[in-house]
Design brief:
The chain is mainly α and 450 residues long. The protein is built from 18 helices and no strands. InterPro entries: MATE_fam (IPR002528), MdtK-like (IPR048279), Membrane_Transporter-Flippase (IPR052031). Keywords: Cell membrane, Membrane, Transmembrane, Transmembrane helix, Transport.
Length: 450
């Protein structure tokens, strides 16, 4: 009964209150997800060395993000479809979409495990990973890909729960597995001296636990989104619906990560200190990304359910409210991260050269992050209506292609970390303008529904 009331509030309640009620569990969940991911980096950086820090936070991190990011994009397709059926109270089609999504996550996990293990070393060499980092990076990724099925099952299960308005239970799962991951990191690395292997095993073990918990939650629920093991199979029509939305979102994520990999290649040419600082920056500014992504997930679910219920004017109003809240939140975070950058970096490493490089990177990039807020919120809102192709093209063309083009032009003329970092605000600015134009042209809700 409580879950039904909560879902009804998404389509009927006070918009800002419901967005915040949905947002906070997601942002806290993402926070624990970042702690979960960052724990590996902190432990190896403090107790193993900067080579291990570069191995876990450099090329290996980019490759893992590329693979997982594509699937998370695909799972967002399932989330949109399920949120629309849930908003329309269509039990039959919701069930088909849910079981198809689960079948897909299992099949994709198996494929990615095999492909990931075989392509790890060639990918690291192709990215010009420093020679003193390659071996540890390969070990980390082999173990990481070994647990890919559980990683994907968790991500799909969590996406389904959020799609129906339940953002609290994924948070509880992350808290449990985050604490477990930290304990295992310290046990395997500090107590047993397992190095990079230890943090990889800790990560996979935690992913297994998270996948099992989320699956049990869906099996035990009495709501219309109940999971039944004997019904996990592909439904052709639902698979097409999920992929129609999910593939563009997945490709968008892939292009983001490909551009990040290209950036990583340029960074790799600047030495181990810069690689370690850049990898650590990715963990630090995750505080910003987790807030924007939480707002984007919130507005996607909010728009999706109201779209299914036919409440178009409410959709547009919710986007405006979400944009204001995300801008205000970003301002606070950016100021704090800018001010405390030196102290934050010292949590990861005692190497002064890495700290100096990292503080410069943080303070150079942070002011431009406001631009991305526009892209994140409008992209999430459009995805909620099922409009994914054009936003994907805008992102791939505006952010990713321009970033790569900048690197291979300006990066060749003026090589260095400042030129690499300038690719972010340049590409974001152009893409933000394109998103604003498309949103006002195509987003439903210009008039109140009857």
């Amino acid at each position: 009964m409580n879950e039904k009331e909560k879902v009804n509030q998404i389509t009927e309640g006070v918009i800002w209150k419901q967005l915040l009620l949905f947002f906070f569990p997601i942002v806290f969940g993402t926070f624990f997800q970042q702690i979960y991911n960052t724990a590996d980096t902190i432990v190896v950086g403090r107790f193993v060395g900067k080579q291990a820090l570069a191995a876990v936070g450099g090329s290996a991190s980019q490759i893992a993000n590329l693979i997982v990011g594509f699937f998370v994009g695909l799972s967002s397709g399932a989330a949109v479809v399920i949120s629309q059926f849930y908003g329309a109270k269509d039990k039959k089609n919701l069930s088909k979409a849910l079981h198809t999504a689960f079948a897909f996550s299992i099949a994709a996990g198996i494929v990615l495990t095999v492909v990931g293990i075989f392509l790890t070393r060639p990918a690291l060499l192709l990215m010009k990973t420093p020679a003193d980092v390659v071996e540890d990076s390969a070990v980390y990724l082999h173990i990481y890909f070994g647990g890919m099925v559980f990683n994907l099952v968790y991500n799909m299960g969590a996406a389904i729960l959020r799609a129906v308005g339940d953002s609290k239970r994924p948070l509880y799962v992350l808290i449990i597995t985050c604490v477990l991951n930290i304990i295992l990191d310290l046990l395997f690395v500090v107590a047993f001296g397992m190095g990079v292997t230890g943090v990889a095993v800790a990560t996979v073990t935690s992913q297994v636990i998270s996948a099992l918990i989320v699956t049990v939650m869906l099996l035990k629920t009495r709501e219309i989104y109940v999971l039944k093991i004997n019904q996990i199979r592909f439904d052709r029509r639902m698979l097409f619906s999920v992929l129609r939305i999910g593939i563009p979102a997945g490709l968008e994520s892939v292009m983001y990560n490909i551009s990040n990999i290209v950036i990583q290649v340029f960074v790799n040419n600047l030495g181990t200190d810069t690689v370690a600082a850049w990898g650590t920056l990715g963990k630090i500014d995750a505080l910003f990304w987790m807030v924007i992504n939480a707002f984007a997930i919130s507005i996607t679910t909010f728009v999706g359910q109201n779209f299914g219920a036919g409440k178009y004017h409410r959709m547009r109003k919710s986007v405006s409210v979400c944009m204001i809240m995300s801008m205000a939140s970003s301002a606070v975070l950016i100021i704090l991260m800018y001010s405390f950058a030196p102290w934050i970096y010292r949590l990861f490493t005692t190497d002064s050269a890495v700290v100096v490089h990292g503080v410069h990177m943080s303070r150079f990039l942070l002011p431009s992050y406001f631009i991305y807020v526009i892209i994140g919120i409008l992209s999430g809102a459009l995805r909620g209506t099922g409009k994914v192709l054009v936003p994907m093209l805008l992102t791939c063309g505006g952010v990713c292609s321009l970033r790569i083009l900048w690197l291979f032009t300006a990066g060749q003329i003026y090589p260095g970390i400042n030129t690499i970092m300038l690719s972010y605000p340049v590409s974001w600015s152009i893409t933000a303008v394109l998103f604003i134009v498309y949103y006002f042209m195509k987003f439903p809700g210009k008039k109140k529904e009857n």
